[in-house]
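Friendly challenge for the regulars: who can give me the structure tokens for this chain first? No prize, just bragging rights.
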Amino acid sequence: MRRIIASTVFCCLIFATAAVAQEYKVINVTDGGAISGTVKWSGPVPHVAEFPITKDKQICDPDSTKTADLERLIIGPQGGVANTVVYLKNISAGKAMDLPEQRRHLDQKKCRYVPHILLVPQGGSLDMVSSDATLHTVHMDGAATYNLPFPFPGRVTSRSLQSAGLVNLRCNGGHVWMNAEMFVAPHPYYAVTDESGRFEFTNVPPGTYQIVAWHEGWTLAGKEQAYDVLTEHSVQRPVFTPPKTWEKSVTVSANSAANVEFVISNK
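First reply, four minutes later:
Bragging rights claimed.
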């Protein structure tokens, strides 16, 4: 079963990388338009995935909750789905890169990766730091492969990201519930929804595009054996079903605003 899940996820990584990887040219956009919209939840809300906190409880669980919120599905008061990555799939030219600065910096805080969804421009760098007085690692696979230790708090480490696509992050220091996702974006028309589910692109060249909403998925599929590099013990890590995507066509007219609404559910 683990081999099937791993193979499926790997295929999704290849698909995500192929979907976003293309030649992009920065141009002077004239008569640009805008695209805005929301990603909203429909139907009953499934059980939110949690996982027991089994290590460094004073650091990882100061409030004694005993379980870690894996942040796999965040639905706001009005039904908006946060942490959905929305992007234009087939755009080859447009404005210069202006992705939000806060999603290019990763902290490891109370044994969580903050933010949970990262967005870094292709050719740019991810700055990483740990605020925790325990050993963490940032193990990346997908469009980037690194395995970086963070034994001391407050020391910044940066890595360049040259290949566009999806990167999965996890900790090999025994904090098996720590997980995050990162898109290395080849163009600036990427956004991460907030708790209202909103997204917006500005200065989009007039034309018709495919717009994609990507969510990492929220269903716990099982567990897999992992390795704690500090204790040298075998541990169990949560495994999730593959990411989900929804796609629509959107036409942007000169000096106009287009609206796109995604409605997703547990079906």
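Helices lie at 2-20, 57-60. The radius of gyration is 19 Å. Your move, everyone else.
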